[in-house]
Amino acid sequence: MKNIRNISVTNITNLKNNCNKDKTNLRKKSYIVIYSLIKDVDNLKIERTIKKILNKLKKNTTREANKVRKINYEELVNIVKENSNAIIVDTRSPQEYAENRIKFAINIPVYEIESEAYSIIPDKEKTIILYCQSGIRSEKAYKILEKMGYTNLYNLEGGLDNI
Question: Is 0.85 surpassed by the pTM of this model?
Fold first, then answer.
């Protein structure tokens, strides 16, 4: 490995440009190397540039990981058949829930999801299928639960309107 003092700002700029062109290749080949270089960097400008590159890589990785897993009604039925412990969550208001709902669904309105989810569903690895009328509120609830650490989430695409 080259001595860190021999890395020029031009090399860092080229690395940054490559990050924009080929994120996957850079992530695979350079992520660990760049991270280890930060510890030894004397030049503050280079250190800041490397940190910017790493932050950009993290954001891209997070964006890919944060994609909502959307399913249709047929897939919902299959998931519930395969996993009897799956929980179906209606994220609409209690009034909407009382009018019409998917059988065996529980009601946690999207505006209560953050405060109520853990007490109702303490297991963060449990299969949770979210739905609402159109899929918008359930997608919002999905993102909230994901930030809370829930890992096995699904969103009924199009909600009840799509059934």
Answer: no
Where do the domains of the chain lie, and which CATH numbers do they carry? 4-65 (no CATH), 70-162 (3.40.250.10)
Kindly report the backbone phi and psi dihedral angles of residue 37, in degrees, each rounded to the nearest multiple of 5, phi listed first.
-70, -30
* Options 132, 145, 153, 156, the catalytic residue: 132
Structure tokens given for 3: 């001595």
The alpha-helical segments, DSSP class H, found in the chain are 9-21, 23-38, 44-65, 73-82, 94-99, 113-120, 136-147
Check: CB of residue 51 under 8 Å from CB of residue 43.
no
Q: Is 132 a catalytic residue?
A: yes
Residue 90 and residue 101: Cα distance in Å, rounded?
7
- Indicate the pLDDT class of residue 86, thresholds 50, 70 and 90: very high
